[in-house]
Amino acid sequence: MTRVDATQTKPNQSSPTYLLFSPRRFVVTERAPAGEASKRDTERERERERERETEMGAECCYEVSQIAYIKLVLHALKHRSAAVNGLLLGRLRQDGGATATVEIADAVPLSHSQIGLLPALELALIQIEEHFEAQGLSVVGYYHANERHDDVELGNAAKKIGDHIFRYFPRAALDNKKLERLQPSKSREPAVQLYTRDSSKSWRQTGSDGSNQLTLKEPAANVVLLDYISSEKWQEIVDFDDHLDDISKDWLNPGLFN
C-alpha cells in the first residue's frame, strides 16, 4: 500500500499495511484510592474474561470511514522508505444480532521512526484515548506498513504490537492492504487481505467464507483517495514523530480535509 508512485493517479507499486481492529474499548487507567483501584481492577478483569470466553464464537464486521482510510494511506505514502504505524479510533455497534460492527471513525498517525517501542505505544494509547473520549470514540485498532513495497509478510514488529494490543482487545484482526489493486472506480471494496488471531494465537487470513468482513463506509472513498494521491496531499500528513520534532505541527491533522 505504501510504496507507490504518488505522481500517478493509478498506483503501480505497494507495500502491505496491516490494520489491527477490535470491538473492545481501551480502558484508560486513572489514579484512584487503593480500595477503589482494587475494585476497578477486579471489575475490569471480569469484563476482559467475559470477552475472552466469547471471542472465538462471536462474528464481527469492520467498517472504515473515508477519513480513517485516507489518513493511513497518506501516512504510508509520505514515508516511502520507512515503516509507519498508527492507531484507529471508533466504536462498537451491536444491533441485537449475532454479528457486531466495529466502526472505524478516525486514524491517528503515530510514527515513522520509532516502530515497535511498546512503552511509547502505551503512552500514545492513553493520550489519544483521553483526547477522543469526549467524542465517544476510543482506540479500537492499529495499522502498520512495512518499509519495502515488495515485503508482503506480516512482519515481527506488526505481530509484536498486534499481540500486545490483543491483550486489551481480545477480538482482533489484521488487515493487509494493497494499493496496487486499487482502481479508480465506484467500488466500496478496500484492497485488503483480512487476518484474525485464532485459538492457537496465530494470525490467519479470513473473509473467504463471508466472515469478518471489512468495508468502506462511504461509496466514493476509493475515488476520493486517488484524487488525494494525485494532488500529493500525502505531503501534508503529520504524525506523532513530526509533532515531537516541531510542536507547531498538529498530529490531529485538522486541515487535511479542508
From TrEMBL:
Residue ranges, compositional bias (Polar residues): 1-17, 202-214
MPN domain spans which residues? 62-209
Basic and acidic residues: compositionally biased ranges = 37-53
State the PROSITE patterns in the record.
MPN
Q: Where is this region: Disordered?
A: 1-53, 185-214
Native source organism of the sequence: Musa troglodytarum
* Cellular-component GO terms for this entry: EMC complex
Q: What is this protein called?
A: Uncharacterized protein family (UPF0172)
Q: Which family does it belong to?
A: Belongs to the EMC8/EMC9 family.
